[in-house]
Amino acid sequence: FITRWPMRVEPGALRVGGWIFITVGLVLIILGGVFIAID
Fold first, then answer.
1. Is 2 a member of any domain?
2. Position 17 in a domain
């Protein structure tokens, strides 16, 4: 989707973004599992 970066991403910011992405993904998986279990 992204063809070019507006500016170069710093490794620190990229690492934090990765952790946020992983955390959100885990939360969605947990919520999905809960909803499936309830249903």
1. no
2. yes
For the record, the structure tokens of 13 come out as: 């910011």
- The verdict on residue 16 lying in a domain is yes
pLDDT tens digits for range 5-23: 666 667 777 788 889 999 9
In the prediction, which pLDDT does 32 show? 92
**How many structural domains comprise the chain?**
1
Q: Which residues of 4-39 are buried (b: 16+ CB within 10 A; e: fewer)?
A: eeeeeeeeeeeeeeeeeeeeeeeeeeeeeeeeeeee
Its pTM surpasses 0.85: no
Dig out the tokens for 30 from the structure: 């947990």
